[in-house]
Request: fold
Amino acid sequence: MGIEERLSETEQQELASKGVDIDLSLNILKDYNSGIVGRNPDIIPVDVPLIDGERVIDISHSESFPVADEELTAFRSAYPEASEYLTPSSEGTLSRENLKKTGLLLMPRFSYGFLNGGSATSYGDIRKNRGFHSELYGFYEDEFLKQSEKVKGEPKGVTPAFLQPGGEEGPSYMELKLRSLLLQIKAYSELTGKKPSANMPFFQMTSVANNTRVQEALKEYRNSPWLKDLANSLDLDPWTGETSVQPLVTAYTHSSEGEEKKIHRPFIALPGGHGQCFRVLKDVWVKLYDRGIRFISLGNIDNLGYTPDPLELALLALKGRPAGFDESFKTQVDTKGGILVIDDKGKLNCADLGVGISVKDAEALEKSGKKVLFNCGSGLFNLQWLLSNIDSIIRDLPLRFSDQNKDAGLYSQAEQVTWEVISMIDDPLIFAVDKYKRFLAAKILLENMMTSGYRLSDPDFVDKFGDKNLLDSAGRLHRGLQEILKNRYGLIFENNRWIPAESEGK
Reply:
């Protein structure tokens, strides 16, 4: 039967004050010790998928895409208002430009979502950052400690998404997310001549630990220099959206303390993984569907590369697939997240490193010479399919435990990984993308500083590190950031600072 955890009234009050769902936490513990959940075997990778133009489409380089007559017919019937640019060439292909215009015409049926429940705890954790690269930590230590203190206890979404070249803080992740959607709505308005809808179609999942601060930040953004002028030019209110709040669960004892688990003491309150989004956001998605939304995207707040993509939206709608996911070729800095594999059941699956698949197995795949696709943590869903399957996803998405070693100590964390949903979809569409344009997600503060380009030109950076791979990776991350700030967020570089294009000359 396993250990039956007993909590005193004082302990229950303490957990409740931290925003912990006590019943959920105890049920997870009971079910784990009874062998019902959390004992999911590692995903067994048999192979990795290849870019074949059908299941896996390279959208980072292709300028045209094949389309079948039956796909065109079905699309025109379902979305007549978005069919203006669907005239294939003599080779039966549609151009990249016309597909992007088609995706823009679908914007009134689309809602942009982000997972905004994370805190900056791991992000600014000294032990975790030093463990990534001790010499790099030493090089950045003074600025790191200053930034780490500022982000401590904050929702990650309201922390700076990048540093300006002089070390000044740039806009928050959330400000950039809202800005990217405003720019897509502006593009739709310019293409059609139609005034956009009264409110921005975005939704988010926060947590009980950060929702109050997130909502405060949204109110503050009414005067954000990154949003205000752009929103006013469109007569939009970019700070209202649909929010669902994720409860927290407790941390559990580390595996080194025994096979059966207990609740970790002192108590640590943690989100139960972004995979809980399917349960938490279900009612929001029903509401959006009732308002005419037929496609939603979902991604992490800290991924600067995750913005609304009209090309992907058009391709998913044309192919009639249930969902599509961004994947890029794995690089040295991709140490946290999942890789795309074909498992022993012949299904595409997203195996989270160290949780769903051992690091050893992942390294063996790479050493075999095969190109491994790394999950970018962003997905696009046909909302009708999603709602038709939501209850089975909530029930069957695996719950996994991972051991942690952080400033708070040794503990075990129970999480559901969003992207293991890929294995539950019969015919998912995979978008092979350029990592440096679609996946700039700083999981630790050191990575954010490298991506920002902070002190990369300092001679000491070159001389101090014999690790040429680190220097090359930092340079690619920074060049990727520069490109998306310009092309996806509408920023310009003026007087050694990134500023909104509409502020030029002010």
